[in-house]
Write a structure and sequence with these properties.
The chain is of the alpha+beta class. The chain has one domain: 2,3-Dihydroxybiphenyl 1,2-Dioxygenase, domain 1. It contains 3 helices and 8 strands. It has an 8-stranded mixed β-sheet with strand order 2-3-4-1-5-8-7-6. The protein is globular and about 45 Å long.
């Protein structure tokens, strides 16, 4: 449990998979697993396009770069396709970020920022999270 008041880890929001060809990945997940895209969005600041596949109360997020200098493009260049990050749903992204900082985590985002589908997000560097890029995700107003 976190020592920072107001922080609560609620559930896994999504598992993000970096892909080179978004349409091919969507087609595979639809045919192989019967998954359906429930949300698509181009996130210009991050240089990615996403397709979200709903799984219970969480998502599989398929990500593809929209420009060569995006973090996902660099990831694909260095590591190839595959698991990119895990998004954890939190009740308060700012409080969760403070808790991560207090625990000694190296932050990518010093303050929360807008994410896809109206969420507020912040990323924690994998070097301080046992090799896993973590995204903290606070749901937007309903």
């Amino acid at each position: 449990m976190s020592d920072v008041e107001g922080f609560a880890l609620e559930e896994v929001d999504h598992v993000a998979i970096a892909v080179r060809h978004l349409e091919a990945a969507v087609s595979f997940y639809e045919k192989a697993l019967g998954a359906k895209v429930t949300h698509r969005e181009r996130i210009e600041p991050d240089g990615v396009e996403e397709a979200l596949l709903k799984v219970a109360d969480s998502y599989v997020q398929l990500l593809t770069p929209t420009r060569d200098d995006s973090p996902v493009a660099r990831y694909l260049e260095a590591r190839g396709e595959g698991l990119h990050h895990v998004g954890f749903r939190v009740s308060d992204c700012a409080a969760a970020l403070m808790a991560m900082r207090a625990a000694g985590a190296r932050l990518i985002d010093e303050v929360p920022r807008p994410g896809s589908r109206g969420t507020t997000v912040a990323f924690v560097h994998p070097r301080s999270a046992f090799g896993t890029l973590i995204e903290l995700v606070e749901e937007g107003p309903s």
